[in-house]
Structures are given as structure tokens and as C-alpha cells.
Design goal:
mainly alpha; 5 helices
């Protein structure tokens, strides 16, 4: 993938999560990159959950709700989501 720093959805998510723990703004951009690069992968849904957690921690309740809703879009029919969450 052109915008993937690692070429792997799971590795991109892990890198974005590490970055988010030390730099919120860059971590948010990295999570959005995971979502945009791997939109059909279960990691995109997990990125939405982490994004929701970050926004809730920053008292952005509306942004958190949007991110959590995006994580649930298509559930429970989404293959693989149940095992990863």
C-alpha cells in the first residue's frame, strides 16, 4: 500500500498506537492513515476504537461517538471483528 509505512495493517496499527501514546496529534493522524489505507481490514475498526478513546479522553464527546459508531458500522456481520475485539 502506498500510504502504509509498513505494508501491513496490523503493523501499521501497532505503530500508530505506540505513536498515539507519546504524541496525540501524530497518533491521531497515524490512526486515520490506518483507516484510510486499510478500510476493509479489522484493524481499521480497531483504529476507530482507539481514535474514539483518544477523543473521549480529550473531552471531545461528539468526536468519540462518531469514531465509536464508525467502529461498529456493519457489526455483527463484519467477518473477523468478533475475534479481534
Amino acid at each position: 500500500m502506498a500510504s502504509s509505512p509498513t505494508g501491513s495493517a496490523s503493523e501499521d496499527l501497532a505503530a500508530a498506537s505506540r505513536l498515539a501514546s507519546s504524541d496525540t496529534a501524530r497518533g491521531e493522524r497515524a490512526l486515520l492513515t490506518v483507516i484510510e489505507t486499510w478500510p476493509d481490514a479489522p484493524e481499521a475498526r480497531l483504529a476507530y476504537v482507539r481514535l474514539g478513546d483518544m477523543r473521549a479522553a480529550m473531552d471531545d464527546q461528539a468526536g468519540a461517538v462518531q469514531a465509536f459508531a464508525a467502529a461498529l458500522n456493519g457489526w455483527p456481520q463484519t467477518p473477523g471483528l468478533r475475534r479481534r475485539c
